[in-house]
Specification:
With 921 residues, this protein is mostly beta strands. It is built from 5 helices and 62 strands.
């Protein structure tokens, strides 16, 4: 029974302990398993989440040496909150409670167990992190080729260098894994001393079995998120296209067949040969990057009708390929006259008879050779004699030069041959006598325009006999004409040419009259000339300035048909006969038109307000055409005046600008007392002339006066402009700070303004203002000892600390040219102690004044109650005492100064007392 209770008690305690463990809060936050890549950084995460105060925290490395487990301190915080780091591969932790560090994985030895420890006054906390080191492999590819027993092989090597753990390598050819045949894969793994390994896989295959131009190596490794595919280009064989062709050439006077065996687009080169059981033939090799060709030369007479075969061997061929060509067999079956020649078909004659017309020129007798020979020779003779003069054999044709005559008749024999082949043709030529027949002419009339004239051509061609031709023109019209005669094959042609003007202002008809025996009446052909187009007249005018004078240029251009127009000029407003003819420029354009151009230059002022007329005369115009340009009347110039101050000179400048036509030196200043400097400048601006007259003068010479500029032209035009020179003044210079006026003791002198500034203060200013109407002024201030004061605008500025050395009398001048004004300023520098004493003095003076007023008031009240004597004694006694006491204080204060200074200072003190009393009242 006792054991049962003990068992139950143990069970209860065990359950309580488990519940206590489950109810505990999470103290450490740590990542237990971490994978690091060799050569890269990895984070070791460990943080304390409890509420105890941590005194020390650190990372340790667990090391097993001689079967003993040791711990090496790496990085952390000491008890005095000082951080330590014993290895450069670790970064400093974030805080005492957050030991997260960044670690550089520099070798495989970094793999192991790392312990995170936290110590507090109550208890210690620790946990461990297991670091696994992997290495990312480097992929390398290499392609080799070699020939074994005449077969070309390639080997592609793919290496995954420095991987941990070992990589996995596979191959892709044309997107699929290669089969066992004809591909062979050899894999080898090499271990390195640093804990990594290299896996090398070699893909071996014969080149002619590979149709793709590349292979791909696929590497899988835990450090790669996806398999890495590396593709390399390999050599491939391509099946060529083979063919055969033959062409005939001449070599040494003999015909030779050139048979070409051609292989194109293949790789590698094709083995080509000619299947002929004969002696070694002449061979030519012609190979480029795409086509391989071998040519054989075969004598045509030897290989006539033979079969020629080209043999082709290539790795892509399963068996030898062949191409056959059959060389033709030649024959020459005969020679005959060409169809279409006039023949005399007499069945009783054994030979052919050819009939030619007497007088026919350039007769040609063509011969046709029947056969397939590549070439042949033809020889001809007449009556067993060489060909007579005037007949030549050109190619395969007999050509009779000149007209056919009876001597060309006879028996002709022509022989054609090629090597052993020969053929003969005999034919008889007869000449048919010439019989004259009337052939009417073919009439044609044509009109052309050339060099501004109409060329009418009338022709009567191919007539027997020749036709007669003449021209019929309207009354009063004449032209130039001539005739040409030609003959061909017994027919005659005549052509006549008539030259007339290209056009006329009225309608004109010319007739060509042809007479011929075949016509019952003469034939007429008429041509009507077109009316002349009116000329295109253009007139332009422009002006230019030369030596101050305006000239007008007028251009008159006339585009017309030939002849060129005549241009004359008329000046004036009437139609009187005062025309002048200027030189003209004449230009013939590409379309046959003629351009006439004439220009005149006149002085504009001489013909102001008149008309200039361009008069054009041309045959197409019934009357001369006028085009007029009006020359404008001279206008008055634009006159303007201005005055300005010069920044680089004490003088003022008055400017008179005049812009217009013909402006020269016709402007002047009207001045009573001209003591300044004058200058005149003129220039051309656009279409007018601009003149500028300047006058420099001192301001006091013409201040408050009027200046007048007058323009007077040579033609009597007059204009003037007047401007007023202002009257300036400066009344005074005022001090804007609070001051006290100090009057000269003798009277009549300038008032001095007294100003008090604080001692040991920076940037104290005395504000001034200049009264007057001047647009600007110069202001400067100088101390009585000659030292100038810095001015900022209209203010005196004391930048440094003020001392008693800065006290004194200052004079300020305001000036604008000859206008000036001054002000005197007495500057006193008052320290804080002096200011306190002065305030005490002012308060005492104010109290004395108030006491005096009370005494006077009491005295006035007592006067009513007492007699005259009593009142006089009581009032005068206290007043006299007060005055004596006050004067005695002042005498004591001024005892140390000289008599002159003491008198002046006493006067200033008395003034101050009066002012203080007034301000107090």
């Amino acid at each position: 029974m006792g054991c049962s209770w003990l068992l139950i008690l143990g069970l209860v305690l065990n359950v309580a302990h488990c519940l206590e463990i489950l109810g505990e809060e999470k103290i450490l936050e740590i990542t237990h398993n971490v994978t690091g890549v060799l050569g890269e950084e990895v984070y070791l995460n460990c943080s304390y989440l409890g509420e105890s105060e941590i005194t020390t925290s650190q990372w340790k490395r667990q090391i097993i040496t001689n079967s003993k487990v040791k711990a090496r301190r790496l990085v952390g915080f000491n008890a005095d909150n000082m951080v330590f780091c014993n290895y450069d591969s670790f970064s400093l932790p974030y805080s005492r409670t957050n030991l997260t560090v960044k670690m550089m994985v520099s070798s495989v030895e970094a793999e192991g167990v790392y312990i995170c420890e936290f110590e507090s006054n109550e208890e210690d906390f620790s946990d461990s992190v297991t670091l696994t080191v992997v290495a990312r492999p480097d992929i390398q590819m290499l392609v080799n080729a070699k020939t074994i027993n005449g077969t070309h092989y390639q080997s592609v090597s793919c290496s995954a260098v420095g991987g941990r753990p070992a990589s996995q390598i596979s191959w892709l050819v044309n997107g699929d894994s290669p089969s066992d045949y004809p591909f062979n894969v050899v894999t080898k793994e090499t271990l390195h001393s640093n804990g990594t390994s290299t896996l090398n896989s070699i893909l071996h295959f014969p080149t002619h079995h590979l149709d793709e131009g590349s292979v791909t190596c696929v590497v899988k490794h835990p450090t790669l998120s996806h398999p890495k595919l590396t593709t390399v280009t390999v050599e491939t064989y391509v099946r060529p296209n083979v063919s055969i062709k033959a062409e005939m050439v001449q070599q040494g006077g003999s015909d030779v067949w050139v048979v070409s065996c051609i292989s194109s687009g293949g790789r590698p080169d094709t083995d080509i040969s000619l299947a002929l059981n004969t002696e070694e033939l002449e061979k030519e090799d012609d190979t480029d990057s795409q086509t391989q060709a071998i040519s054989y030369r075969l004598p045509a007479t030897v290989f006539e009708g033979h079969n020629v075969t080209c043999m082709f061997d290539h790795p892509k061929f399963t068996h030898r390929e062949s191409r056959l060509i059959i060389l033709p067999s030649f024959y020459l079956s005969g020679i005959q006259l060409s169809a279409g020649l006039p023949r005399n078909n007499d069945p009783d004659q054994a030979t052919e008879s050819l009939e030619l017309q007497e007088g026919k020129s350039d007769a040609v007798i063509s011969l046709e050779v029947i056969g397939n020979v590549p070439r042949y020779n033809i020889t001809c003779k007449k009556d067993d004699q060489p060909l007579p003069e005037g007949i030549e054999l050109v190619g395969s044709s007999l050509t009779i030069q000149g007209p056919v005559v009876h001597q060309h008749a006879g028996l002709y024999e022509c022989v054609t041959s090629y090597n052993r082949y020969k053929s003969t043709l005999q034919f008889n030529i007869t000449v048919k006598p010439h019989v004259l027949e009337l052939v009417p002419p073919m009439i044609r009339v044509d009109l052309q325009t050339e060099d501004g004239r109409s060329l009418i051509e009338c022709s009567a061609a191919d007539a027997v006999p020749a036709a007669n031709m003449s021209w019929l023109l309207p009354e009063g019209v004449s032209g130039v004409s001539w005739f040409n005669f030609t003959s061909h094959n017994g027919s005659h042609s005549v052509s006549g040419v008539l030259l007339l003007p290209a056009c006329s202002p009225w309608e004109l008809t010319a007739e060509c009259v042809i007479n011929h025996p075949a016509f019952e009446e003469p034939e007429n052909r008429s041509i009507t000339l077109p009316l002349c187009a009116r000329p295109n007249i253009t007139i332009n005018s422009s002006t230019e300035w030369r030596d101050g004078d305006e000239y007008t240029k007028v251009d008159c251009s006339v585009d017309s048909v030939a002849p060129a127009a005549t241009i004359t000029w008329h000046i004036g407003n009437s139609d009187s006969d005062n025309g002048t003819r200027q030189p003209m420029e004449i230009e013939v354009q590409a379309d046959g038109l003629v351009s006439a151009h004439s220009s005149v230059h006149i002085l504009s002022s001489s013909y102001s307000g008149q008309n200039l007329t361009c008069m054009v005369e041309h045959p197409s115009l019934e009357a001369p055409e006028k085009n007029t340009v009006h020359i404008p009347v001279n206008r008055s110039p634009l006159l303007s005046v201005s005055v300005s101050r010069q920044h680089d000179s004490p003088l003022w400048m008055a400017v008179c600008d005049c812009r217009g036509e013909g402006v020269r030196d016709n402007i002047a200043w009207v001045l009573e007392n001209a003591k300044g400097q004058m200058s005149l400048h003129s220039e051309y601006e656009e279409r007018a002339q601009k003149a500028r007259l300047t006058y420099q003068f001192p301001l006091d010479l013409h201040e408050g006066m009027d200046l007048t500029c007058v323009y007077q032209s040579e033609h009597g035009l007059t204009d003037s402009r007047t401007m007023h020179i202002p009257k300036y003044y400066i009344t005074s210079v005022r001090v804007l700070n609070h001051t006290m006026p100090l009057q000269n003791r003798y009277g009549g002198g300038p008032v001095t303004h007294r100003l008090t500034l604080k001692e040991n203060h920076h940037n104290q200013r005395v504000l001034l203002r200049v009264d007057g109407n001047v647009p600007e002024h110069n202001l400067s201030c100088q101390r009585s000892d000659g030292v100038f004061v810095k001015m900022v605008g209209d203010s005196m500025v004391f930048e440094s600390k003020l001392t008693e050395h800065n006290e004194g009398l200052y004079t300020c001048w305001a000036s604008f040219y000859h206008h000036t004004a001054t002000v005197n300023i007495r500057v006193d520098v008052m320290s804080d102690d002096k200011l306190f004493a002065l305030m005490a003095m002012i308060c005492l003076s104010s109290a004395s004044a108030i006491l005096l007023i009370l005494i006077v008031t009491l005295w006035a009240l007592c006067k009513k109650n007492c007699g005259t004597q009593c009142k006089r004694k009581e009032s005068s006694s206290p007043l006299t005492t007060l005055i004596q006491e006050h004067r005695s204080l002042e005498v004591k204060k001024l005892a140390a100064v000289t008599e002159k200074d003491s008198n002046e200072y006493a006067q200033l003190v008395s003034y101050a007392i009066v002012i203080d009393v007034k301000s107090t009242v």
